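quick one, 425 residues, struct below
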Amino acid sequence: MSQPQEGIYYRKSPPKGNSFCVLSLRSEHIAQISDLGCAMSEIWKHIENLKKGIILDLNTDRKHQKNGNLTVLVGYTSSLFGVMGTNKRIPESFGDLNFNPPKSSGGGSIIEGTGMTYSSETVDNHLLADHIIFQFIADTEFYTNRAAVEVWKVLHKLEKKMGKPLLRITGLYTGFQRPDGRNWLGFHDGLSNLKSRERPHVIYINSRNLKSGESWTFNGTYMAFMRIVLDIEKWEDTDVQKQEILVGREKLTGCPLIGVGKNGKPTKDIRCPIPGTTEVIDSGNEKFRELPAYRFTPHDTILQHSHIALSRPRDHVPIWDKKSLRIYRQGFEFLVQSKGRMGFTPGLNFVSFQNTPDRFFRTLTYQQKIFQKIAVSVDTPSLDRYMAVLAAGVFFVPPIIPDAPFPGAQIFFNDSELRKLSKIP
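---
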């Protein structure tokens, strides 16, 4: 029976690690897909040992073997299914949609029908041409960084053995969790996510999502990843009340807004936070984390453009239905040095999981559909204007099959080759 991969923290336990790392790889010199599969098999063996704290070329004492609660997830791009000799056809729902490439001069819409754009400095979205992605999450950045270095070591040894590189690392994106539950914009983040009992129905490919000949994908999922930079200089120069209308929440408490007065000032739900608490993340305020029912006076329609209204639409579609706009999100902030006037660049690693990429892309384009339906008289820009995308991709995350050498091995090997590798009689 197939099992979902780890690294999707949809339950309370185990807790999500603080450190995040995404490592992308590309193959440019392979004659057969099985060569790439052999490389993946070696990498996976190395990683499985690393999750126990074991480094294969260091015979350390057991008491010095540290694993940092490392979890590892592997996914594949649609480009992989175009490699000669692939043993599985691309899942039907995977090939329909993808991100646009950026303009050769930089920037451009990431997909038609959304206000999100690439950074003006992004001239190539390498994730569109890559083949494999690894997600590492652990307690501290030592463990996630070590995992990335250990993958490189395997690739280096394989290159020396084969006389040519089978895979090369094309991207490394790191991030972390904020313990205060806020993002770089100063607002609470990830409040209106799916309820625990709903998440498996949204995340994993089930019998309702399966097409003919795709039973091997059961309990798999699709991961969407966006590396987003935030213009916090422009944000900090924006009036706080305007910020609150853009987000849809009061900045200090995180309580939802329910209206905007004729004077342009936002009004929050006066019941929030409940007595004895100070923020919406405090116990007892759970109902205020969801999208509120707006009053729909002429001045309140602007709240339908708010971030929480657009990212948590009321579509009244059962969550298990692939037409639902619900996705499961988990984000990690980042801060890197840059040559700009600030000296650094803050941003977000946006990650979501859904049982069909269609959910994700329709959620992105939902915003523009609302903009077209509702005329807003107040000149309030979208939150998208404070964001820009550096890299973005969608990946098929196959399930774990017992005795298979690594998740997704069926893509690289035929049944006979798998039996030999797995030592199945």
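Strands lie at 19-26, 71-76, 132-138, 168-176, 221-230, 257-260, 266-268, 328-337, 344-354, 387-397.
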